[in-house]
Amino acid sequence: MLPTGKKPAVPSAALLAFCNAVPNVFWSGLGLTPISMFCYQCMARPWLYGLLAASLLAYAIPKAWFGRWQLSHRLAAYQRLGVHFVNRFTQHGDIVHSLLRRWYPQYRHVRGRAAVPALISATYHQERFHLVGLVFFLLTTLYAAALGCAGWAGLLLLTNVAYNLYPMWLQQYIRVRLGASSCAPSPPPPRPA
Known about the structure:
CrtO, cell membrane, acyltransferase, 7 helices, 193 residues, Glycosyl-4,4'-diaponeurosporenoate acyltransferase
C-alpha cells in the first residue's frame, strides 16, 4: 500500500485503457454509425454478408505486402496530408499522452528501444484492421452508388477516408517515425575520467 498523498510513478493499466478508449470509442461511433445505418436500412442481407466475407479476406494478406502500398518512407509526405495532426486525437495520441504525462511525469508510451518491436507489431495489426474496414466501406459505397443513393455513397466515401484511410496512414507514419528515430545516431558513450 502506498503512503497517503503519494501516487504511483506510472498510471495503472485500467487508467491507461480508459484514457485510450475514449478517443477510440468516439471515432468508432462517428465512423461506424453511417455505415451501420445504411446497411440496416438499405442493404439486402445476402449482400451484407457477402461484402463482409469479402472484406475479411484482407486479414489473410501477408504483412510483407503492407510495404507495397505504404504511402511514403518520408515523414514529410504524411505531414503534408495532416497525418501528424490526426495523431493528436487518437488512442495513444498526443493529447492522451500529454494528459497522462501531466498526471504522471515519468510515463512513456514507448519505454526504450526494447518496446519498439511490440509497437511496430501493433501498428501492423491496426493497419490490417483498418484495411478490412477500408475494403468493406469501399464495397458498400459501390453498392450504394449502384442503388442510385448518391448521398449515402458520398457520406460512406467520406467516412471511409476519415475512419480507415487516415488511420492506415497513421500506422505507416508511426512506423516511419520509429524507423527514423531508431536510425538516428546514438550519443557517444561517456569518456572515462
